[in-house]
Design a protein that fits this description.
By secondary structure, the chain is mainly alpha-helical. Helix 9 packs parallel to helix 11 and helix 16 packs antiparallel against helix 17. The chain starts with a helix and ends with a helix. This is MROH1 protein.
Length: about 300
Amino acid sequence: SLCRAMARHAGPRLPLIVKNLVPTLSSVFDSQRITTTAFFAELLSSNVVNDLILLETVMDNMTGRQKDPCMLVRMLGLRGLGNIASGSPEKVRKHGAKLLASMVNGMDDKDDPYNLVALEAMSSLSKLLDHLEERDVQSMLLHIAIRIRPFFDSEQPDLRQSSIVLFGNLTKFSEGNCEVFFEQILNGLVTLLLHLQDPKPEVVKACKFALRMCGPNMGCEGLCDMFLNHLREDRSLHYGEFMNNVCKHLMQSYPEMLNRLILTNLFYFKSNWVDIRAAAPMFIGFLVLHVDEDHCQQVDLDQLISGE
């Protein structure tokens, strides 16, 4: 609030305030570095930094926070970089490669036991994506998709939601790497379909969004139409009927995927979430129901019967 008020009413004084605050980013006291980083992060959500030619200075200081020993400082630094999407969207493209590198580093943060830095990196990247150069994103697409995939099943709902929304947003950039990214969609497909039964409504909403975004990249018009029509945010879903039809389309278009889809579902037989545990065997049942006889040989019955 203080920062917003200063951005609105004390613009001409900001360059001097920023200049005086920069040294505190090297303070030995965590509290001083946290406060200054939080102030700069909020400042980046206002266009005033652009008007006063402060953007590069403040942005570089936020980028420099990535190696800070304090996790909260690293997290706030990423939040500031993400805020450029609302404060100075027209400048994101120019600094795209640097911003993208910061987000990827944040996702790879090794000293982040609660994944708070990764969470900030994922939500900030989702904000920035619309303003980034396509080729910059495409060069990192695979790395990001692989990195965020484990978060789909995180115990923390906000990590599930952020990673799934980011995955949906990434599909916009898959054109140049269609085959490579299609593989990532197939890797995540079972998880996204099962998490439509997630206990948290915000995760269900994220899955609907991601599947709608994935649909056009799947090369199956029927599946794409189903995702667009049945996974609208305002529409309630009859899950069993929906999955029956999804499996029909999957087995018509990708019968060779049967065993792979079954193996991924088997993993969820031990899920902590009861509705997802129940959805996985139903998913397998519908797959087997709709596959033709020629492809039935793929199924490892012993593995299926033991449920492991």
